Amino acid sequence: MSNFYFQIDPLAHSEHTAIIGGVKTYFYGLSKLADVAPSLDVLLFFLMHGRGESHIASQSVAFRLMTKWYSAGQTTPLVCITIDNPNHGARLVDDHANNAWNKGNQNHALDMVSIIDTTANEYAMLVDYAPAYISTLLSLEGVASDAFCFRNVVSGISLGGHATVRFAQRNTAKVEAIVPIIGCTDLSSLLLNRLRKTYKTEFAHLTNFGLWNVLYEELELSAEDQVKYPKRFHDFLAEKDRQVMEEFGNTQTKKLFLFGADDVLVSEKYSKLWLENHPEGLQSFSLSGVGHTVTEEMVSHIQVFLSLLG
To answer: 243-300: per-residue pLDDT in tens?
Structure first.
C-alpha cells in the first residue's frame, strides 16, 4: 500500500537496530538522547505498519512525525520504534497470505486476524524490552541512560491500527496512550461486511451492537462463505471483539483515533459504537476527503496529541 509513504530525507533522523526476541527492531531518532539531560522524559512511539507493507512505511510516517515534532519546538525527545510485522518485509513467508478475498485468498480472515494478534503480542514484548536495549545502544556511544523516564505510546496503521486496539485491550497498564490510524475496534463487523458487500442486516445490527454479538446461525452465510468464515473462527473472534468492547482496561489511557471519512476499506462506522462507549481520554477525527491512507493532517494531529500528554 504505497499510499502510506511520505517523501523523506533518510538522513534527517538517526537509525539504530537491535534484535529483540529474534526480531530486527528499528529505532529512529535515538541519537537525540545524546544531547539532552539524562533525567528527561523520553517518548517512545511504537508504530505498527499496515497489511502488505514493511517497516519502511512506518519509517516514513515516523520521520514526518519527528520532523514536525522538533519543528514545533518540542524539547522532549521522541524515539520511534518499529519492526516488520509477521509475514511482511524481511519476514515474508507467503505473500498470498497477505491478500484479501478479492485476490483469491480463501483464508483472508484467519490470516489477517492471526497476524493482528501476533503483531500485538510482539509489540507487548517490545514495550517491555525496548528501554533496556536503548540503554545498551546508547552505552555503545558513551551515553548514560539510566535516569531517563521512558513513556510509551503505541500506534499503528490499518492492520497495525487493528493490532493497536488489540494490544491496548490486554496491555493498557504498559502505555500512556494509543493512536490507531485508519484502524478498527470491531473486526467481526469489518470482516463480515467485507465478505458480503451487501450484508442484508448490516445497519440494523450496527445500530445497537456489532456483529460480534450475532450468533453464527443468524448470519445466514452461504455454504461458500462458511468455508471462508467458519463458525469456530466467528465464535473465537466474536469473543475477542466482546472483550475489546466490554473489558478494555485502564480508562486513564489516552486515545487518539484517526479515520478517513471516505475510507471504504476500513469504515469509521465499525468503530462508532466503541468510541461512544469509551469517551474517557478520547480524541477522534474523521478527515473529510480522505480514504484509506495516512495524510499530513493526520501526522499533525498526532504531533499535537503527543505534545498535550503532559
So the answer is: 999 998 777 899 999 999 999 999 999 999 999 999 999 999 999 999 999 999 999 9
Q: How far is CA 119 from CA 36, 57, 62, 116, 150, in A?
A: 32, 16, 18, 5, 22
Q: How far apart are CA 24 and CA 90, in angstroms?
A: 9
The letter for the amino acid at 23 is: V
Q: Which CATH number fits domain 8-185+252-307: 2.60.40.2250, 3.40.50.1240, 3.30.420.40, 3.40.50.1820?
A: 3.40.50.1820
What would the grid cell of residue 2 be? Answer: 504505497
**Residue whose C-alpha cell is 469456530:** 232
Question: What is the distance between the alpha carbons of residues 110 and 101, in angstroms, rounded to a whole number?
Answer: 11
**Are the C-beta atoms of 158 and 52 separated by less than 8 Å?**
no
